[in-house]
Amino acid sequence: MIEQPSAPHDQKPARLHPRQQLLRENLRQAKRILGQTLPPRLKSSLQAITREWGFSLEKGELQILSGGCYVTHSGLLRLARRKRCYGMQVEAVDSLCDASASRYVLKATVYPCQDSAGFVGYGDAAPSNVSSLVRGAEMRVAETRAINRALRKAYGIGLCSAEEMGSSSHPGDKVGGVPKPVADRAEGKGSGSKVRDRLCQLIRQHQLDPELVKTYAVDFCGSPSLREAPREQVERFVQQLAERAVSDRPALLCQLNSYARSGDEVVA
């Protein structure tokens, strides 16, 4: 009696390593942001960053600004949590602060483990080195920058953070390495158009979902649609959105996602 060969078992495709899967997602997201094939230097940088630290573009842990990769405050905080950071301390450097001029210098100390002597980072902020979108929130920007520098030192990250970038290079004029049209920067536009431009810039810069931001704006302004909202209310919304995107982006994303879960629809 001849024994029949057994049927081969169904072969399941090999599962990718989590970092390999993350790299695919980051490359796909970067291409979507730029709308073009990634430059070799940016692709190589993104590969190295993903493999070494596991930062995600989709989660807002990385940003692409002016053709380069920058880690974000939320990315550094998540890394600290994964590494079980023991704690951190932030204090103002009073001798270098001038509240009347909105100029602040803060000192952050990060303790990766209980026995650590601490890694110190300083952050400064003034109207001259912050975006116009966050004017009035200089102290919080200085705190964020100080924490970012201390965390980068503690975990050996040479990659600059997005929040440490000053305003001298006008990062708002380039998002993802793509210059904004000259017409968008022209003088003489109506104030309503300027507010819309600022809101669009925020959405691109911080990689927010436009529809969720729109729903949030309608809820914030208390109007049937965004078009019907008073201009002053929209301006206040844009200002607080800018501040929250810099000072507490994870909480902002959580609030935006709550609108997705609620299934609200907005008609402009």
Task: Output the keywords.
8 helices; 43% helix; alpha+beta; globular; two-stranded antiparallel ribbon; Double Stranded RNA Binding Domain; disordered C terminus; 3-stranded antiparallel sheet; 12% strand; 7 strands; 268 residues; 2 domains
Structure commentary:
With 268 residues, the chain is α+β, with helices and mostly antiparallel strands. The chain folds into 2 domains: 154 residues, Double Stranded RNA Binding Domain, CATH 3.30.160.20; 83 residues, no CATH class. Helix content is 43%, strand content 12%. It contains 8 helices and 7 strands. A 3-stranded antiparallel β-sheet has the order 3-4-5. A hairpin with a 7-residue loop joins strand 4 and strand 5. Helix 1 runs antiparallel to helix 2, helix 5 packs parallel to helix 7 and helix 7 crosses helix 8. The radius of gyration is 22 Å and the shape is globular. It starts with 17 loop residues before the first helix and ends in a 6-residue tail after the last helix. The C terminus is likely disordered.
Topology of this protein?
Elements: H1 18-34, H2 40-53, E1 62-65, E2 68-71, H3 73-82, E3 87-92, E4 104-111, E5 119-125, H4 138-154, E6 174-175, E7 178-179, H5 191-205, H6 210-221, H7 231-247, H8 249-262
Antiparallel strand pairs: 1-2, 3-4, 4-5, 6-7
Number of strands: 7
**CATH fold annotation of the largest domain:** Double Stranded RNA Binding Domain
Give helix % range: 40-55%
Task: List low-pLDDT spans.
Answer: 168-190, 264-268
Major sheet attributes: 3 strands, antiparallel
Number of helices: 8
